[in-house]
Fold these 4 entries.
Entry 1:
Amino acid sequence: MSLKTFLYQHQEHSISIGTVSDLEIRDDNVVWESFKRGDQGSLVYIYRRYANILFNYGCQFSSRSEYIRDCIQELFCDLIDSRKRLGEVKSIKGYLFASLKRKIVRGLKKEELLQHDEKGIELSFTPTSLPISQSLEREQYAIIERKLGELPKNQREALVLYFYEGLSYVEIAEILGIKVKSARALTYRGLDTLSRELTPYKEAFYVLSLLFHI
């Protein structure tokens, strides 16, 4: 069975071949270099660890789940075809996020389905897409979701990538196509605005302060 066939067959049911909790976390540099040398196990590790995470991230840009799955499949096939030409990466997750976002956005632009302006893409948050939803009552979540939705698009995305996905400012900068200093500033501004807007809502603000370390 070829690697491309393996990825295609497990694209929709990646959970069946393992989840992050099943995996021994390995050093990104070691895994990446091994993958570039043609090690199939490294490719399987990368796919098992990140496929579901990539799908959840991709769904922020489009509700078309099959399209997102296709983009992820294409992303891994591209990695296989070009792995000998790939450079070093500091973070596999950051690299995959940036690559998937570019692929999704390019495809949506071609189909004229992407809502965008000079400030960035239109993220669509759902109750299960953020960690705060598990800690709040429905009313509190609605308040935070509304205030988060009022932030500029890039600030919203920076907050989600930093606090939910655990990415560094370097990784966020790569994904958003901006400088590291700007990524840090976006995150700070977004968090500052969100905390000020939620101050009147004591319960929601308290939970948010615990989650975002305000």
Entry 2:
Amino acid sequence: MKTLCMVVALVAAGTSAAAQFKNGTAFALKDVPGELVVERRAGESVRFALEENGTTGYLWAAEWNTNECDVVLDHRGAAAKNARGELLCGAAGTLDVAVTSKIYTPARVEFAYRRPWEKGVKPIRALKLIVYTVGEAKSPIYPKNAVNRLLKEECAKRGIVLTDWHLHVRGGMTPEMAHEREKESGIRSTAMENHGREWEIYDDAKLVAFAKRSRQVNPKMPVGIQVNDRDWFEKIAPETRAQFDYVLADTMIMGKLPSGRDNRLWMVKEIPDPDKWMEDYFAHTMRILDEPISILANPTYLPEPLAGDYDRLWTEERMRAVIAKAVKKGVALEIQAESPYPRPKFLKLAKEMGAKFSFGTNNFDPSPKDLSRWLEAIVWLDLKPADVWTP
């Protein structure tokens, strides 16, 4: 077997990042650590290089949790990409990996290599990069600005108790911070974790531990899960599901990539046949509404290549079908902070058809989001307590 030499180069704006190696992971490279832990300051990027020397080429395939970070791959040396975009490394070369924008830590970047001629064979080596943010923690408290003041006044006038049902415990956000935010703002906080094969939590023991920890902070704080696999209700035991107050889902993961990983729609850059895709996506949305969920988050979402075609693709017939099923199943339709979805026509139809609305921020870290959209929807739709979903 050829000898691999790893060169680690960390480039950060302002201050230098620190790195440490961890051994003992499965399929660790023989001569280098299986896990590289990197600390970075907020706003900094992280870069490192994998350099290989030898006479036999290897294929490096990079995988990463695209929900948590953007990764740029740049290979230099004797190499080329195959049809699937994988990097075929030649006799020598360097694979540079830059974790750049949208880093919601801890982020994971996983690499695996195999000989190019071993098609269909599992990678025999792997390396994991984990990026943590260090430095001053972000404040979870909402600023005392005009929007938040008017939102509080409007809800008090209408008798609406606002709850953020889409509050993730990730990127440094903790149940303790959520509880602190609730005390300061008067907006009820929740604690929610993602569940799925490609996520941190994918077994009942971790789900139960998360629910227990959250309730230790505040026994009255609702605890939920966001489900990302379409067979989730077959994988989670009924007694485990009973530990949670609500289940949230969105439509933003549909199908698989050639690599076998989930197809995250917010990463899609091209859709050759929008009409055919929309037929599949509408069916995908309707199937999710048949699952035992509580909230449909970000309804009528479209990936970036189709965002300008919203009015044509989301016909009134399709909108009415989604709303009717949500009403029938008792599923709330989310009004999400800082999201353009759903558009006003959908919201108006949903109100007329008797749908219940929920509110959410879909945070990536403790930073408060702009709640203007919540305020606009409440006033424009003239929402009353009966229009707002509760478990």
Entry 3:
Amino acid sequence: MSNLLEIKALCKNFGGVQAINQFNLELEEGSIVGLIGPNGAGKTTIFNTITGIYNPSKGQIFFDGKDITGCMPYEAAQWGISRTFQNIRLFSNLSVMENVVMAGNKNVKYGLVDAFLHTSKYRREEKNLKEMAMNLLELVSMQEHADAIAGSLPYGHQRRLEIARALATNPKLLLLDEPAAGMNAEESIELVEFIRQIKEKFSLTVLMIEHHMDVVSSLCERAAVLNFGEKIAEGSIEEIKKDKVVVEAYLGKEG
């Protein structure tokens, strides 16, 4: 199977601080891969360079055969890359439905004149968009909350809404930044099954940052481990768990 994402010798500096140093990763189409490591290791910085929030200092990023190094965030979304955030970023004052509809707007085919005049094309597209949004809300068991204000939802519901919004962009690659953060054991188990379902239903490739190793072990085929901006290990979950360098990075050296 071909690689959907390739990251080659990626570096990112912030002034004199090197957040990422010579990071390489290949992501096969249809795979689920974990990106793990201690806090501050550079994991979210990698997400930010993939999605165009940051420009890399060096290196290249290829997506679906295209060099997307230094792309703009809207271009990444158009090409099929979507993400969630470690700190949930919803339109808190809008309804649940409006949040998903806004994300799906990138796929509409009407123009400004159609929107201004409320042409039949505009009405048809808006109807289809709302139907798509409701289907996604049903998928994440949020349909009963469609009219609720997003900021009023419990934390776990907001996480599900954020994933529904990411799916509304019709992605090929889904980047999940700590999806299980703040969840208890039961919620984490439900999340694992949910991610499996959407991966199959939407034929997704998933790259996931996660500190809950039970979630990583249940979902990911392999993982890459970062520490101080450098990849210190990569392999199957069992190989990662037994790697002495990884254990030291998490727990510190004995003695």
Entry 4:
Amino acid sequence: MPDDMLWGGRFEGSVHPAIREFTNSLPFDRRLVRHDLLASLAHARMLRETDILSRGDSDLVLSGLSEILREVEAGELEVAGPDEDVHAWIERTLVERVGEAGKRLHVARSRNDQTAIALRLYVRERLEDVLSGVAGLQRVLTGQAASHRKTFLPGYTHLQRGQPVSLAHHLLAHVAAFAVDAERLRTAHRLAGVSPLGAGALAGTSFPIDPARSAALLGLDRTFANSMHIVGDRDYVLDAAYACAMLSTHLSRWADEIVLWSTREFRFIELDDSVAQGSSIMPQKKNPEAAEILRGKCARTIGNVTALLALMKGLPLTFNSDFQEDKERLFDTLDTADWSLAAATVIARGVSYRTDVMEAALAGGMLTATELADYLVRRSVPFRTAHHQVGEAVRLAEGGGVELWDLDLETLNTCCPSAGDDVHSVLRPDAAVAAHDSPGGPAPGRVLEQLQEVDRAVAALESWLDGRADPPIRRAHLEGRLLDAVLA
């Protein structure tokens, strides 16, 4: 590309090849080509409607951009060449096809607002992909939970057996974390939905533009309040990266559980051969490598958030070329989140739960000690006193190598004198789970409520995703209506 293609008039000499290569972003920002072309179509259409661009020139520009977009999407046109970025590539390609009219496209905009709108559109599209993956994983886990409302196992604190819960309740704890991730991702999607078109380099433009029209054509309902802020803003990049990092963190915790539960020490699950791998030297091994790698992917997304925060810290208003460094970190984060969700969903489908082992693990941990304390409180014993008495009972049971529910009433009364004939009815794990009937608890009825609520929430998310129709300018492109007098 000649140096004067976008900005060379000020310069007599050529850019040093090393500097050209160092500043070139086309190898990675070319993935924004679709989004830049759509934004350019919206900008050109707005210029046509405001009479900033003549009908003749706008006919050529809109038709040329539409043809480039069609060829790019069909894989017939490669985004490659000597251009410094994807924006320069589009303008060069357009001028080659439609001539001088193509040079008029850039009126009333800068690469600053051009870059920002393309990246915002890209972020929103990719977040929708991630949200779809979240919904898919939730569906798998809730399906498993629905089958295990009366499968009981120890719940853990400090990785020590604490109280009995149902497997359904345990699985729904992960689903609940992913539900919060979905909210966070939706918020990031909404915050990215501000159109910066019309902000120019930093001070708007002297042309009679209509930023609201450009935004509407792109399916965005908000425009910027301050031109300096919007071109220097990358908060939406950080929002998306942080939301994905939190999702990766929750995926990592779930994956760690897959690794732990598949050990011979736990044996709570068996992994299908399709989601496990072997050892190069130990023939007996069946390793949860996919889950381990999924756990490790979290480090990438956390690192990317840190890098983006460091990039943004202390940058002066408004636009700075440092922003070029945001894309590879953002792209990697979104790719990692998307890929991780796909892997997690496959792993989840490949898990078989060893309910017999889970049931056996209910013994040996005195898991209903809290139920005994609560029972005594209901018989007017102060909780701290009840706690102390049950602690003595636990020592007594451990000394005899039995469970609390194995102690006869006479023996139990030596520690808990207020215990009555009905005390054993609260000490079995299934009774303890059923008794925890508080909102959000593990009792079968409460778990059913949680399942129903999750189903409603996931259905609402899926409905929202299904309703994410192409923006007006894309529909016009697909239907060949870019030159219509009115665009719906």
